[in-house]
Design a protein that fits this description.
- The complex is a heterodimer of chains A (314) and B (285).
- Chain A has 314 residues and is mainly alpha-helical.
- Chain A contains 13 helices and no strands.
- In chain A, helix 6 packs across helix 7 and helix 12 (263-272) packs antiparallel against helix 13 (280-310).
- The radius of gyration of chain A is 27 Å and the shape is flat.
- The relative contact order of chain A is 0.13.
- Chain B folds into 2 domains: 2-43; 48-284, MetI-like fold.
- Chain B has helices at residues 2-40, 46-50, 63-94, 99-112, 116-130, 137-161, 165-173, 178-207, 210-214, 235-243, 248-284.
- The longest helix of chain B is centred in the N-terminal third of the chain and has 39 residues, at 2-40.
Chain lengths: 314, 285
């Protein structure tokens, strides 16, 4: 009885269940929600696309070059006549850049974070933090230019034996670019440490130095470590700085004054020439890219795992 | 007493040290900007914007590069903005809070950490070769769109999360459907945040060089593209090309190009901040 009445009234004012307007609305709701779902799937498809395309061409590549030679060979002469495809010199170059860049970015970034979180006034912090973050917003091509035309000419007279293209200048530029990554993330973590911990330490007569290094940094350590790993990951994937300033000589060395080549640098070198679709050189891009993708993926996952695993709850 | 003095000394030395770290970052930024202005400012004149690239530094300009950048970035925004916002709406407003959604979220976080050159490789494999778009503006824009998508999604999600639950409940109480609630209540409220995030993401794409190297930005283009399948160059590509040459004049040209690029980026950032402040005042004030 009641339901019937509802139905009739509904039909009269256009909201009844069998009403075409209402049906149209429900259909529209459904269609639009499916569109939203499809959009979300684009990001999933992107990941699948990256993995599929890298895997497919890498497998092709490994038909021509044995995986043992690729992963453990110490000679990379992919663009020469009798090419050798041992990727270790490229991996070594990448790690060399990442190492020297973090020697630069980690202490300076952490120092900035401690200053901004523990020493600086609120006013100073509000002004300085965005200025530091500009460093992260400058395109890497600009740092490449800076490394090549400013850092290298500045250092060469001071350091004998430094090549025009060298790992050190590139690493310094990569380090500068990643300072804000370390400082911003670490500072956020340090500011999240509750004040009563600091006040407790001050009440026991600690100096600011002691509060910062023995209370605040240990309490925020998980996020600080995670920011270090992220900075290393960024340095591993950095491309334009090393392409411009680090040279294009694949070699296994710990000497940062020499010209080297990174994985990204090699990809750029190949891309800048004529790539014949389907040739061996074409496939090396994907094989090296696969290695690069896996390295940064592992680093990013490690960074997240550190935060999850060692988080201190208050 | 002696011990106390030593501890205070430590504190003062440490204060100086961490101050120097902070000062270093600011000083480097200043040196970088001054160096680039000093190198490039003399090339900033009308001819620099009117001329195409040239072997002769005095006749070289960024006309093709600027036009290429505008084409690529406009298309990138066209692809990435609607998809990014729609994806964020799906995750925040529709998706159930379960493992699957968690995986989608994790996937987006991982994508944001993939080096940009890997997107270039994806674009080379998929857009240039499989889809057959060739080394065209379309390939470049699609690649950059995928690159900035995670950034736009995350920023839009943050904006959607900031919408108070009471507003949603209010809309439902008035009989709105979910879609009506989203289009009439949630989106207008979250729009400034979404727009700010999108502008910042697009600005990032504007400065990207590495992925475009792989999907076909060419260094030497002496025409203004007039279709999405044309070959192209962009401003960062032109800067890369000039920086890589040995002659000092080309380095100065690169510096001038950087000045233009930084000018555009700065304007984009300023616009993002202005928009946010303006809209925020109107809706929440």
């Amino acid at each position: 009885m009641n339901r019937q009445a509802n139905g009739r009234i509904g039909r009269l004012d256009g909201t009844g269940p069998a009403d075409p307007i209402r049906r149209y609305r429900r259909l529209r709701e459904l269609a639009v929600s499916r569109l939203f779902l499809l959009s979300a799937l684009v990001s999933v498809l992107t990941t699948m696309g990256i993995i599929a395309i890298l895997a497919e061409e890498t497998i092709q590549f490994l038909r021509e070059v044995s995986i043992v030679e690729f992963l453990f060979g110490t000679e990379w002469t992919a663009l020469f006549k009798n090419p050798k495809f041992g990727v270790l010199p490229l991996v070594g170059g990448t790690l060399l850049i990442a190492l020297y860049a973090s020697v630069f970015s980690i202490p300076i970034g952490l120092g900035s974070a401690i200053y901004l979180s523990e020493y600086a006034s609120e006013r100073t912090r509000r002004i300085v933090k965005p200025i530091l973050e500009i460093l992260a917003g400058i395109p890497s091509i600009v740092y490449g230019y800076f490394a090549l035309t400013f850092i290298t000419p500045l250092l060469r007279p001071l350091i004998p034996g430094m090549s025009v293209f060298n790992a050190l200048s590139a690493a310094i530029a990569v380090g500068i670019m990643t300072i804000p990554l370390v400082s911003s993330l670490s500072e956020d973590a340090m500011r999240a440490v509750p004040d009563n911990l600091r006040e407790g330490a001050y009440a026991l007569g600690s100096t600011r130095f002691e509060v910062a290094t023995r209370v605040v940094v240990p309490a925020a350590l998980s996020s600080i470590m995670a920011s270090f790993v992220l900075a290393i990951s960024r340095a591993v994937g950095e491309t334009m700085i090393v392409a411009l300033a680090a040279g294009s000589t694949p070699r296994l060395t710990l000497n940062p004054l020499e010209s080297i080549q990174t994985m990204t640098g090699f990809i750029v070198q190949v891309a800048s020439g004529d790539i014949v679709h389907g040739g061996t050189i074409y496939k090396t891009i994907f094989a090296v890219g696969m290695l690069l993708f896996l390295m940064t993926l592992v680093l990013n996952m490690v960074s997240r795992a550190i935060v999850r695993r060692y988080r201190e709850e208050y | 007493m002696d011990r106390l003095r030593r501890r205070r000394l430590f504190d003062r030395v440490f204060h100086g040290l961490v101050f120097l770290c902070t000062f270093f970052g600011v000083a480097v930024l200043a040196v970088l900007l001054i160096d680039i202005v000093a190198d490039g400012i003399r090339w900033i004149r009308p001819d620099f914007f009117r001329n195409f690239a040239s072997r002769i530094p005095a006749q070289a300009g960024i006309r093709a590069a600027l036009a290429g950048s505008v084409w690529v970035i406009a298309l990138t925004a066209l692809f990435a903005f609607p998809i990014g916002v729609a994806a964020a709406i799906h995750i925040e407003e529709y998706a159930p809070r379960n493992r699957l959604t968690g995986l989608v979220q994790l996937n987006i976080a991982n994508l944001a950490g993939v080096p940009s050159i890997v997107y270039g490789i994806l674009g080379l494999g998929v857009f240039v070769n499989v889809f057959g778009f060739g080394r065209s503006i379309l390939s470049g824009a699609l690649t950059l769109a995928l690159l900035v998508l995670p950034v736009i999604i995350v920023a839009s999600q943050e904006a959607l999360k900031s919408v108070p639950t009471e507003l949603r409940h209010g809309a439902y109480a008035l009989g709105a459907t979910r879609l009506q609630m989203i289009t009439h209540v949630v989106l207008p409220y979250a729009f400034p945040g979404i727009l700010t995030g999108t502008i910042l993401a697009i600005a990032r794409a504007l400065g990207e060089t590495a992925p475009l190297l792989l999907v076909g930005a060419v260094a030497f283009i002496a025409f203004v593209p007039d279709g999405v399948l044309d070959s192209y160059t962009t401003l960062p590509m032109q800067i890369y090309n000039w920086s890589g040459r040995p002659q000092a004049d080309f380095h100065s040209l690169a510096a001038a190009g950087i000045l233009v690029l930084l000018g555009v980026l700065l304007s984009a950032n300023a616009a993002a901040i202005l928009l946010r402040n303006r809209f925020q005042g109107r809706i929440k004030g």
